[in-house]
Write a sequence for this structure.
């Protein structure tokens, strides 16, 4: 049964999209031409606003440029990355704080994206159900996503404050804790505080994508399942989940890219503290605070490479999975 | 209808009359917003506007000095004329000198006459006076006079004494129903302010200045380790865990709402603690920071802010005139009386009106003059990294991931690495 469903649903539709017209026909050539014509403005814009800064960052990472005098930069090769000098290693790759920030970022990304997917699906399932006032609830759920991160992070910073924050007050009044916890100051809790705020903020995004997928699901197989008396959980794992996987894949890649370059939520909540420092916070610190544009650019370049690698790996694995599932 | 026509005609006429004074220029000044700073700055600027007929736009900047420096560096490195006059920290003149105007060129050779020599020297880079002293700062200890009296204590003279008194009063007050009572609050967030706090602990224990004036790294010693260990013992005992994320204003918030026995802060907090809406009005005493043990001495960290003119300003003469006005004797006196900002002009410390408003300016005069400078001069461009290494390590000790001995050894290694590469 499952194969027949798969042919009817979204990925099957996607496949018909990629069905190629026969090579060499006139129509095809015209289409390709038109496609390039329409793409050109975007490609030019991308080269200007994304390509140029990227190339410049690559270049600066091989210099000793300083923010106080950008013009007077010398080429120094790979010294910003790694160099052996006077009996010890220097450079970003030899900096324990950099590796700490890499670990923090990976930890943050994996944990927060996983939680967001789980909760996002749950919220989407709730919103998909028929109930009174559904429209209002759907709009309300979007609020965390609509608030700019910098604002919501500051809001949470106040709510999490150890002396006057409402979170501690609530937890203490119901007796879960007996002394206020310094959520954003204590190294044990600060990463979890950051993850919690990020999850709170981005559940709506995942929920929205999943909800869109849920709305497209064919009703008949659910009716069939109901007639057969199959347990709802089994229906979810055997029918719903495989069908919404493509939408989930999109949600995960978007969230993963966002999470790997996370900056604002961490910076507002815990500033430069090394226990939560992400790769972006590290790069900013080198670039701006220490004025070391060369070194900071090296950190930014590494960040770019890591994100690119993660994306490629994810797409590769994702494609494998879809192909396996599709056949 | 007729009425609106008339009013709009008046509006247009008045606009025209303003634009006809084409000389009236618009300047931009950025000043701090800690405590009453922004209001004071706006009042001072308004007085100058009235005097000269020019208009000034006041932009407020981040409270954290670390972030404010970043903002300035971005603006200045873009050669932007967005901000004409900048309020800069006492440790920045060396970093920003290239981008700042030599004020002696515009204001004359005796522009800074009468100001504290040490600050003028500090602001003079390669014989260029890049900033005028505006107010000076030194860390002081605030205490609850009423509570100390209630429990029969004098103001503490050593950190150990402070620890014991704070613990005793905190616990007694908590037992008496004030559950939120804390013993001691200070600036424990991983930022520049923690560098000053930690330097005060280390220096008061006789542990040196982290990096000495000759560039020698002196932090790895038992006095420094002892000082850091004592500070770490406060967390969760007499200081709340949240102090690890406090800057000046968070600490003041707790103290001023009656939630702490002791607070380390700058003099500006005095006027606010004595203001009408303060919960501790009339109950606060100010003294010098404690010494580290029997053989230590009190060490107050030197702070303070200056006004500088950007080289990229489109109206450098006018901007320099604004700076001269704001840092002048009259304006500094007003700021001292109204909001307890320390003048940089020696004569004001003998002024009766000033001493009446802020009595401790007289009693703590020596503290202000002999404050301990952060090692920004010997480390030059690398100061940002040095300070960061110092406050990060201190933060590690405070949050319990390292002990003092380990921390000062690690810090010495780290600083030695920085020294070999950067200074």
């Amino acid at each position: 049964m499952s194969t027949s469903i798969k042919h009817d649903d979204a990925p099957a539709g996607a496949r018909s999209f990629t069905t190629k017209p026969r090579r060499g026909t006139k129509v095809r050539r015209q289409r390709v031409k038109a496609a390039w014509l329409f793409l050109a403005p975007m490609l030019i814009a991308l080269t200007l606003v994304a390509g140029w800064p990227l190339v410049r960052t690559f270049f600066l990472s091989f210099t000793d440029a300083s923010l106080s005098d950008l013009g007077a930069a010398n080429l120094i090769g790979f010294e910003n990355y790694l160099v052996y000098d006077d009996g010890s290693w220097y450079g970003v790759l030899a900096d324990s704080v950099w590796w700490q920030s890499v670990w923090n970022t990976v930890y943050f990304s994996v944990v927060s994206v996983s939680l967001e997917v789980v909760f996002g699906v749950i919220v989407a399932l709730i919103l998909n159900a028929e109930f009174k006032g559904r429209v209002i609830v759907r709009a309300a759920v979007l609020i965390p996503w609509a608030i700019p991160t910098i604002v919501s992070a500051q809001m949470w910073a106040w709510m999490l404050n150890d002396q006057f924050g409402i979170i501690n007050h609530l937890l203490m009044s119901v007796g879960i804790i007996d002394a206020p916890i310094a959520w954003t100051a204590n190294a044990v809790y600060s990463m979890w505080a950051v993850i919690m705020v990020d999850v709170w903020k981005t559940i709506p995004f995942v929920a929205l994508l999943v909800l869109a997928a849920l709305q497209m699901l064919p009703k008949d197989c659910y009716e069939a399942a109901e007639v057969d008396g199959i347990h709802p959980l089994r229906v979810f794992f055997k029918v719903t989940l495989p069908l919404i996987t493509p939408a989930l894949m999109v949600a995960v890649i978007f969230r993963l890219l966002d999470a790997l370059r996370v900056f604002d939520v961490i910076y507002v909540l815990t500033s430069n503290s090394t226990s939560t420092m992400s790769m972006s916070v590290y790069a900013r610190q080198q670039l701006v605070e220490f004025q070391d544009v060369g070194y900071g650019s090296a950190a930014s370049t590494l960040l770019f490479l890591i994100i690119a690698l993660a994306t490629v790996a994810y797409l590769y694995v994702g494609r494998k999975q879809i192909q396996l599932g599709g056949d | 209808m007729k009425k609106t026509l008339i009013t709009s005609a008046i509006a247009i006429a008045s606009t025209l009359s303003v634009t006809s004074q084409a000389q009236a220029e618009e300047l931009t000044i950025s000043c701090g917003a800690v405590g009453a700073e922004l209001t004071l700055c706006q009042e001072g600027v308004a007085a100058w506007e009235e005097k000269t007929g020019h208009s000034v736009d006041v932009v407020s900047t981040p409270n954290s000095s670390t972030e404010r420096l970043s903002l300035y560096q971005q603006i200045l490195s873009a050669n932007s004329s967005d901000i004409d006059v900048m309020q800069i920290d006492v440790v920045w003149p060396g970093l920003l000198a290239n981008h700042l105007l030599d004020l002696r060129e515009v204001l004359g050779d005796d522009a800074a006459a009468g100001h504290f020599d040490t600050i003028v020297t500090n602001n003079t880079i390669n014989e260029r006076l890049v900033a005028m002293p505006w107010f000076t700062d030194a860390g002081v200890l605030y205490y609850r006079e009423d509570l100390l009296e209630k429990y029969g204590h004098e103001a503490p003279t050593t950190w150990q004494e402070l620890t014991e008194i704070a613990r005793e009063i905190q616990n007694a007050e908590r037992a008496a129903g004030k559950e939120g009572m804390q013993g001691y609050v200070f600036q424990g967030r991983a930022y520049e302010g923690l560098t000053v706090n930690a330097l005060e602990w280390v220096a008061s224990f006789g542990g040196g200045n982290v990096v000495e004036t000759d560039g020698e790294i002196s932090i790895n010693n038992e006095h420094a380790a002892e000082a850091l260990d004592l500070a770490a013992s406060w967390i969760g005992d007499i200081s709340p865990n949240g102090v690890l994320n406090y800057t000046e204003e968070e600490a003041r918030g707790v103290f001023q709402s009656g939630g702490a026995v002791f607070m380390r802060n700058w003099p500006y907090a005095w006027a606010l603690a004595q203001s009408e809406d303060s919960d501790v009005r009339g109950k606060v005493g100010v003294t010098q920071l404690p010494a580290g043990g029997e053989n230590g001495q009190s060490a107050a960290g030197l702070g303070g802010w200056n006004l500088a003119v950007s080289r990229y300003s489109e109206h450098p003469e006018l901007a320099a005139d604004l700076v001269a006005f704001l840092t002048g004797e009259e304006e500094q006196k007003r700021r001292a009386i109204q909001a307890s900002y320390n003048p940089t002009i020696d004569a004001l410390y003998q002024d009766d009106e000033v001493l009446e408003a802020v009595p401790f300016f007289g009693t703590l005069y020596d503290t202000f003059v002999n404050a301990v400078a952060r090692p920004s001069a010997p480390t030059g461009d690398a100061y940002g990294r040095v300070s960061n290494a110092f406050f990060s390590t201190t933060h590690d000790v405070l949050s319990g991931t390292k002990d003092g001995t380990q921390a000062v050894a690690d810090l010495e290694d780290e600083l030695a690495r920085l020294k070999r590469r950067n200074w």
Notes: The mean pLDDT of chain A is 86. Chain A is about 70% helix and 0% strand. The first helix of chain A runs from residue 2 to 8.
